[in-house]
Amino acid sequence: MFDTEKLKTFSWVNVGNPDHEDFERLQQEYKIDEDTISDILDPDEQPRFEIEDDYKVIIVRFPIVNREIETTWHTEPLSIIYSRDNVITVCRKRCDLLDKIKKDEKSTREEFILNIIYYIAESYLRSLKELNKRVMRAKNALTERIRKQELLSLLDVENSYTLYMAGIKGNISVMDKLDKLRGFVKTDDAEELAEDARIELAQATEVVTSYSKMLKAIKETFESVINMDSNRYINRLTLWNIILIVPTIVVGYYGMNMKLPFAEYDWFAVIIFIMIIALLIGYGGAWFCPRTQTLKKRPFGRFLI
Fold first, then answer.
1. What is the average pLDDT across 209-213?
2. What does DSSP say about strands 48-51 and 11-16: parallel, antiparallel, or unpaired?
3. What is the architecture of the domain spanning 2-224?
C-alpha cells in the first residue's frame, strides 16, 4: 500500500505492508538505496538513527498484536525516512497508530516525526494495561485451579514484557540522538512534543519494570504451590508403598515351601486377607475425610492439567 498525502510544508508517503513494486518505487522515485530497503525488510531491526547523503533514517519499534506467531504481543520496526520535502514511513505490517497522525497535521517535518514517536510511546502504555489485565485473568483462573494453559499464558506475557522493554529502551536512545542533532528540535512545539515523548517513554519503562516484578512474584507463588502439592503426593505414595510392603511380605512368606505357623488351619488365610482389606479401608477413610475438608478451605486448586 503506497499512500501519498500533501501536508502543510512537506509530503507524507506512507508505505504499509509493502510489496516488491513498492520497494522499486522507493528506489527509483525517492532514491532510497538497497541497504536501507534491506533494513526495512528485517523484522528484528533495532531502533537507530542514521544520516545518509540525501536523507536521514529513523527506525523505532512499536507494539503490535499478531496471533500468527508464538508471542502474540510483540513489537515491529517502523522506518521513518525524511528529506527536505518528504517524510516516508515504511512498515512491514499495518501500523494503525499512523491513522491518528493524519488528523493532527504538524507544521514541520520534525514535529510530525516527534508526534509519531509520541503516539508510539502512548501505544506502549495502552498495550501494557491490556497485558496486565491478561495477567490478572490468568491469576484468578489459577487461584481456582492450576492449569497448564494459564501458566503458558503467563510465559507469553513475560516474553512480551521483554520485547517491550527492548523496544522502549531503543526508542529512548533514538530520542537522545535526535535531541543532540542540531536543528531537529528548533520550535517550541517541537520542544514540547519531544518532552512529552520522553515522559511517556520513561513512564512506559517504569510500568514494564513494575509489571515484570509483579508477574515474577505471581509465577513464584504458583510454582511454590505446585511444588508443595508434588511433595504431598510423593509422601502419600511413599506411605502407600510402605503399607503395601506388609501384605507382600506376609503373602510371600506363606508362599514358601517350608513349615509355617498356622498352616494347618485353612481358615487362617481368610483371616489374613480380611485383616489386609480392613487395614486398607481404614487408611483410605482416614486419608479421604481430612482431605475433603482441606480442599473446601484451601484457595488454590490441586491439579495441573
1. 93
2. unpaired
3. 2-Layer Sandwich (3.30)
